[in-house]
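Handout, page 2. Input:
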Amino acid sequence: MRLRSPGLALLPLLLLAPAAVRAEEAPSKAAIEATVRDLLRREPELVYQALQTLQERQEAEARTRQTEAVKALKQPLVGDARDPVLGNPEGGVTLVEFFDYRCGYCRSMVPDLERLVDGHEDLRFVMKEFPILGPDSLLGAKAALAAKAQGAYALFHAALMRASRIDDALIEKLARDNGLDLARLKADMDGDAIRTHLQENMVLAQSLGIGGTPAFVLGDRLLPGAVPEEELARLVEAERAGGPAAAPN
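Output:
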């Protein structure tokens, strides 16, 4: 429970007092400071309340900025034809995930997300490859996007998310086991198209203030970090119903 004190309401008045009276009637700076010190000495909880209020205001302003950024960038977020889509490509609810194949939180969420997609026939799940954790991450992202061109993105994505190590040998094995053209896969991995796509994903994430993985976008809301399965399902249902639910705690 937040502490309440009449002194908190008086503090701004004390600080603004010089502007509210004629100069010749204004108390000295030393007198004001002494009054404020005395008030804080008698009611030290005012400092905590002021800091808490400031933090809440800053968090609210940050959420507003993120929401406005999501709205402004909605087309590249949900409508980039280069992005792989799992679930229902024509679904009425779109969930976007920024992820990295070496991210432990991303990997731990895979079973939850698979159940979420399986349980919501109208869910369109947009995959934003966001390799920020080193060369293995980049190799995996390039391979997955190259596999998309041969209709094997979902297979590669699932395998890479569960792989203990991502290297050329794994990529080649996945290609052979799934009947892909390995030469074409490697050429696409090294091509300008995938390089540009990944660079633009980085810029998009930066524009949204995303600096880690996973990060989700649902409707006009940015959801940073791992979101519990039940919370994500609740938010998807709320989005389907036509309005945002309360944010998860």
